[in-house]
Amino acid sequence: MGLKCGIVGLPNVGKSTLFNCLSNAKAQAANFPFCTIEPNIGTITVPDARLNVLADLVKPQRILPTTVEIVDIAGLVKGASKGEGLGNQFLGNIRECDAILHVLRCFDDPNVIHVDGSVNPVRDKEVIDIELQLKDLETVEARIKKLEKQASIGDKESKRRYDLLERIRTALLKGISARAVITPTDDPVLLTEFQLLTAKPVMYVCNVDEKSAITGNAYVDQVKAAVAEENAEVIFVTAAIEAEIASMDTAEERTMFLADIGLTEPGVNKLIHAAYHLLKLQTYFTAGVQEVRAWTIHQGDTGPKAAGVIHSDFEKGYIRAEVMAYNDFTTLGSEAACRAAGKLRVEGKDYVVKDGDVMHFLFNV
User: Fold this and answer.
1) DSSP 41-77
2) Which of 143, 132, 130 is nearest to 193 (CA)?
3) H/E element holding 358?
4) How far is Cα 228 from Cα 241, in angstroms, rounded to an integer?
5) Residue 188 pLDDT
6) What is the pLDDT of residue 271?
7) pLDDT at residue number 31
8) pLDDT value at position 191?
9) pLDDT of residue 13
């Protein structure tokens, strides 16, 4: 689907280290600001144990997981909204992403430089929030200026845009991000058109030290308290541990290492799943002898939309879908068994696809 999550944060908080762990790309990681100048783009495989279960039953020629793109964006600094520290370029990179993963330093280490001289994740969060809000305020005020004359003389479309922008402007002037005042009834097409940075969903990723890898720490608690009203997700990982896990050659080594430190899975798996959820995505499967494959769709997508992810012709010529619930398929063991047990359903164009559905599409082009 071409969806992207952008990793942002102040310089030297662990963004590039996390990026390296998440993807097969290799961003430079060093102990000084602006190590990353051009955005690095990597493709993340979304871990899903269901895919392997289906493959064990079907015995396909290949297995294809679903993916999400992640972009490592160079560290922002105060003044980025006015172009400081290549700010315009960095903010432009954020604008192209669908969601923001905001990395915060939540560990003490005198050997790792902090751009502001001390560790304070809430302050760091606010620095970036302000820069994004200032850039959005610039965008919103420019659009309001173009619309206000037509809106004042009763042009309905201009008035609709003006009212939404004015509501967002009022929030931004108070230091409140756009996402906090956007409602489910607001037109998503308009919001996409405005391309506001602070309208994007955000997840705060607290980079903690090794001793805090399981329970978190006081810094994480401070972040959770600070974002309580934002309806944002907060997770914590230890970038240094994740880098060590990523460097191991075998799954057995990784499993043993995780067990030794009291973890059941790498923190990056937790981050990937949380990012997937942040983008309001879900997975359906196709399962045949050629391949078992996971496909990414938005929550609430109908059968034709889901088919269109495979090929646009599938959506245009959609007739119906044969659908089996994942639990039915894996319990009964095959498509033939689901059909015999009456667990294979035929669904039309209005069917809302459920996470884990195993589907075959019938179409006519």
Assistant:
1) EEEEE---HHHHHHHHHH--SEEE--EEEEEEPPPP-
2) 143
3) strand 358-363
4) 28
5) 86
6) 86
7) 47
8) 87
9) 87
Residue 141 pLDDT: 94
Looking at residue 192, its pLDDT comes to: 87
Please give the order of strands across the beta sheet that includes 4-8: 40-45, 67-72, 4-8, 99-106, 202-208, 233-237
- Helix spans in the chain (H): 15-22, 49-58, 87-95, 121-152, 156-173, 188-194, 218-226, 239-246, 251-261, 267-278, 303-310, 312-316, 326-332, 335-340
Place of tokens 């290799």: 26
Residue 276: predicted pLDDT:
85
- List Cα–Cα distances, 82 to 88, 145, 226, in angstroms: 7, 20, 26
309-330: burial string, b at 16+ Cβ within 10 Å, e else: beeeebbeebebbbbbbbebbb
Phi/psi for 282 (5° steps) reads -150, 175
CA-nearest of 135, 33, 130 to 92 is 135
Q: What is the pLDDT of residue 86?
A: 43
Residue 55 in contact with residue 79, Cβ under 8 Å? no
Whose CA is closest to 124, among 15, 271, 255?
Answer: 15
Strand order in the sheet with 318-324: 62-64, 291-298, 281-287, 358-363, 318-324, 345-347
First to last CA, the chain: 22
One DSSP character per residue, 68-132 reads: EEEEEPPPP-TTGGGTGGGHHHHHHHHHT-SEEEEEEEE---TTS--TTSS--HHHHHHHHHHHH
d(CA 267, CA 257): 13
Query: pLDDT below 50 — which residues of the chain?
Result: 25-37, 80, 85-87
The residues pairing with 70 across neighbouring beta strands, listed in sequence order, are: 5, 42
